[in-house]
Design goal:
Distance between the termini: 14 Å
Structural class: alpha+beta
Order of helices and strands: EHHHHHEEEEEEHHHEEEE
Shape: globular
Largest sheet: 5 strands, antiparallel
Number of domains: 2
Radius of gyration: 18 Å
Strand content: 25-35%
Strand order of the largest sheet: 7-11-10-9-8
Number of strands: 11
Length: 235
């Protein structure tokens, strides 16, 4: 499994001398890794920051595939672009299964997941010999009404655990649980249609419990102290 993350501000700084150009012209060398449908999807977003988050997610998957068999690569690492000319070793053709989960048409032996929050984008990729599916989620630790979200989406187990945490650590734990739950529903492909109260994210044991059984493993990825990041994988 390979996990990469990147700060979109690094891309903005890299292309700051091109600010008079359109997004498409500014990032044309990076956009070349995408097939037409994905490129149109990226460029169809209204805000340039949202376009960039979507593009960077694809760049990270491209990088993960290139580096997959390099044993020396850490299991998670930061990708910092150092050139406006990205080596194009392949074009990525994104498609979607019936359950809504994305896959790569030319790399069907790989499963992947992408997430972004505020300035960071992260992506995990694994060969299906390792896991047949994966989910990742990152959450910037600010801007959410934690009490309301916990009341609506957290299981009794999670609410009791959150209540047991001292106030100075409660925000961190809230976002850890939320990232773990989001990662799980992305792994299963259920997304927001899943009843979030129907399963427990036990971040102390690194497990998701559903129907009184362990349903998945959850792993904390310590990318940044101001973000919560979790990966969910099958048992």
């Amino acid at each position: 499994m390979k996990t990469y993350y990147s700060n979109i501000n690094n891309f903005i700084l890299l292309t700051q001398d091109l600010d008079n150009l359109s997004f498409e012209k500014k990032y044309e060398n990076f956009l070349q890794i995408l097939d037409k449908n994905k490129k149109d999807s990226v460029l169809g977003k209204k805000k340039d920051e949202d376009k960039l988050r979507s593009l960077v997610g694809a760049i990270l998957i491209h990088k993960a595939i290139d580096d997959y068999n390099k044993a020396a690569t850490p299991y998670f690492m930061e990708y910092i672009p150092n050139s406006k000319n990205m080596p194009i070793t392949k074009k990525l053709k994104f498609a979607y299964a019936k359950d809504g989960k994305p896959y790569l048409e030319d790399f069907k032996d790989f499963a992947f997941s992408i997430s972004h929050s505020k300035d960071l984008v992260c992506a995990s990729l694994c060969h299906k010999d390792e896991f047949d599916k994966i989910g990742i989620d990152i959450q910037f630790k600010a801007g959410k009404k934690s009490d309301l979200i916990a009341k609506r989406f957290y299981s009794d187990f999670e609410k009791d655990f959150l209540d047991s945490i001292d106030e100075c650590n409660k925000k961190d734990v809230f976002f850890d649980i939320w990232a773990a739950k989001e990662a799980y529903v992305k792994m299963t492909g259920d997304g927001l249609k899943k009843d979030f109260k129907s399963f427990d994210a036990d971040i102390t044991k690194g497990s998701i419990y559903e129907n009184n059984k362990i349903a998945a493993k959850i792993t904390n990825i310590p990318i940044s102290p101001i973000y919560s990041t979790y990966i969910a994988t099958p048992l």
